[in-house]
Amino acid sequence: MEERPGAVNARSAHKIVISNRKSGVLSGVIDVLSFDVGEILLETELGMLMIKGNDLHVNRLTLEKGEIDIEGRIDSFTYSDMKESQRKNESLLGRLFK
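RE: above sequence
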């Protein structure tokens, strides 16, 4: 079976389940780039995800399955495209001479 470009396989599909803004389960997580009590930065199957809140904690992290459980007061989720952030870090000359 041939995979389509940009398709997410069923094992690592990106999904977010939030309960009362106090706990959440996320799947499709590739890596945890940083976290503290105010912000968690994740690399997911669909791009970078920044979670902001208060008293945030990572309760369970299983990168083999691509899953993470978080707890705390969740205020926001913000996605950004990984390609865009990589382009911003690239110099003007680097972009011109590609």
